[in-house]
């Protein structure tokens, strides 16, 4: 998420540091751009061993160098871990914004999850992330980003129920889904139930309550939002409730995972994510807490939302046939586009919402990766999905990674790696977005989610298609 008032393109030349000059500045080898060991926020031997292994495996040495920089970036620069009062606590900033997003904090530590059975340190770190997320949710389930302390931040005058300690209060369905995703898979990966405290149970109940409130089957609910701003997507129409809808079982999401306001408040990728999360919550409620009645409520809501998705959000496109719309309103209006931020339509299989060979998804994917999607851009330096968040002609590395993550084609995956390799602007890191014709112009030089999801992609390739890493790009 960029700061609206700071929407400028960075460039390798403009950064003014040797560490960020174009690669041809060095006569041999690659520069050391990773945070020096003594200044890293968190270190783990298991992570360092993975880095050594991937660097040895990659035939393309620049790709190995990018992994070395990007994979540990969340640990190196954004985590603040402590153990106090018998409880693990981990605060995770996004990078160049000193706040913790429920979404980003999950996505940033997600690639370390498979290493937790080898590293107690990593397990404790991720346990601390869940504990902190639970505290945030129980403080305000409608907020998307929080400070570590009771700080009063830059958006304190937003026209909503702001509290000290909240950075931003933009209601996004996925803000409540990502902590469930992390909790569920940490449980499955380690077998530990340490995170499932009375506070976690209360957070689960708050999540269910918020989802049902935002179905708006019995009134508009307690949430509304406004901001005094010149950016139209940074505030909300409809007197703070969003554009008009016809309630139908879907959950309203007033903002997208880009932190931009929705056009039609039934955001379909986020509703898909809610279905997955509700079913995961139900399994936890039954298996850990023995809360069978609460679990059944979650399963019932999941079925209701899923049925509504297939009834109202599968829409006939004039070129691609029946595909998933990105947003609908219940009146028959639909938005045909996709956004690089996850959850998005492209990433539905990644989130476990649909099978990768689902016929509707396959048609939707063809649409997303075509010029029929108004936010799919092709240029001199690459092609990929962008976002209204960064206006036009800006391609997001997260979108490129997600295309590779959801592909069955070796050549398509290799092409995404080639684009990522040539568009880091000489910095050795991924960015929020880059100009399609000049990747030395980019937004957010320090965006940890983009870095670690790149690392996640490389590990997925190593596990499922190791032969690709043995090919020079």
Number of helices: 13
The structural class is: alpha+beta
Shape: globular
- Number of β-strand runs: 16
How widely separated are the two ends?
Answer: 30 Å
What share of the residues lie within helices? Answer: 25-40%
**Proportion of β residues?**
5-15%
**Order of strands across the main sheet:** 1-16-15-14
Biggest pleated sheet: 4 strands, antiparallel
Tell me briefly what this model is.
By secondary structure, the chain is of the alpha+beta class. It contains 13 helices and 16 strands. The chain is globular.
What is the topology?
Layout: E1 10-11, H1 45-57, H2 61-70, H3 73-77, E2 79-84, E3 87-92, E4 100-101, H4 102-109, H5 120-139, E5 145-146, E6 166-168, H6 173-190, H7 198-213, E7 266-267, H8 268-287, H9 292-312, E8 314-317, E9 321-324, E10 327-328, E11 334-335, H10 359-368, E12 376-378, E13 383-385, E14 394-395, H11 397-405, H12 410-422, E15 433-435, E16 438-443, H13 448-464
What does it look like?
The protein has 13 helices and 16 strands. It is globular. Helices cover 38% and strands 11% of the residues. It has one domain (4-470): Glycosyltransferase. Helix 5 packs across helix 7 and helix 11 packs parallel to helix 13. The model is unreliable at 1-8 and 11-28 (pLDDT under 50). The longest helix has 21 residues, at 292-312. The protein is an alpha+beta fold and 473 residues long.
Features:
alpha+beta; 16 strands; 473 residues; 13 helices; three-stranded antiparallel sheet; globular; Glycosyltransferase; disordered N terminus
């Amino acid at each position: 998420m960029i700061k609206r008032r700071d929407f400028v393109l960075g460039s390798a030349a403009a950064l003014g540091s040797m560490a960020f000059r174009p690669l041809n500045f060095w006569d041999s080898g690659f520069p050391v751009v990773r945070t020096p060991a003594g200044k890293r926020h968190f270190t783990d031997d298991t992570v360092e061993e993975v880095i050594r292994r991937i660097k040895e495996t990659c035939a393309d040495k620049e790709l190995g160098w990018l992994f070395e920089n990007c994979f540990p970036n969340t640990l190196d620069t954004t985590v603040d871990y402590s153990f106090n009062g018998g409880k693990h606590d981990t605060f995770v900033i996004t990078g160049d914004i000193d706040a913790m997003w429920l979404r980003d904090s999950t996505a940033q530590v997600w690639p370390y999850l498979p290493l937790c059975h080898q590293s107690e340190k990593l397990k404790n770190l991720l346990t601390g992330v869940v504990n902190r997320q639970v505290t945030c949710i129980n403080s305000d389930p409608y907020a998307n980003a929080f400070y570590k302390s009771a700080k009063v931040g830059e958006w304190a005058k937003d026209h909503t129920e702001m509290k000290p300690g909240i950075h931003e209060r933009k209601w996004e369905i996925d803000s409540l889904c990502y902590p469930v995703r992390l909790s569920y898979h940490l449980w499955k990966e380690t077998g530990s139930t340490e995170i499932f405290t009375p506070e976690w149970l209360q957070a689960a109940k708050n999540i269910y309550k918020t989802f049902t409130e935002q179905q708006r089957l019995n009134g508009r609910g307690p949430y509304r939002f406004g901001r005094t701003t010149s950016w139209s997507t940074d505030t909300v129409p409809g007197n703070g409730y969003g554009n008009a809808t016809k309630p139908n079982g879907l959950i309203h999401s007033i903002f997208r995972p880009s932190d931009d306001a929705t056009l039609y408040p039934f955001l379909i990728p986020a509703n898909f994510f809610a279905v997955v999360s509700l079913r995961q919550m139900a399994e936890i409620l039954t298996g850990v807490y023995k809360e069978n009645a609460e679990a059944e409520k979650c399963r019932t809501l999941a079925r209701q939302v899923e049925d509504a998705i297939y009834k109202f959000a599968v829409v006939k496109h004039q070129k691609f046939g029946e595909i998933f719309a990105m947003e609908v309103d219940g009146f028959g209006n639909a938005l045909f586009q996709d956004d690089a931020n996850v959850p998005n339509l492209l990433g539905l299989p990644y989130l476990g919402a649909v099978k990768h060979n689902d016929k509707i998804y396959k048609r939707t994917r063809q649409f997303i990766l075509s010029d029929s999607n108004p936010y799919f851009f092709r240029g001199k330096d690459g092609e990929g999905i962008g976002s209204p968040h960064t206006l036009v002609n800006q391609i997001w590395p997260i979108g490129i990674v997600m295309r590779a993550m959801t592909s069955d084609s070796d050549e398509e995956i290799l092409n995404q790696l080639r684009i990522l390799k040539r568009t880091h602007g000489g910095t050795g890191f991924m960015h929020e977005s880059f100009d399609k014709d000049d990747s030395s112009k980019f937004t957010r030089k320090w965006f940890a989610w983009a870095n670690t999801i790149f690392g996640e992609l490389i590990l997925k390739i190593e596990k499922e298609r190791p032969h690709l890493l043995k090919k020079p790009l």
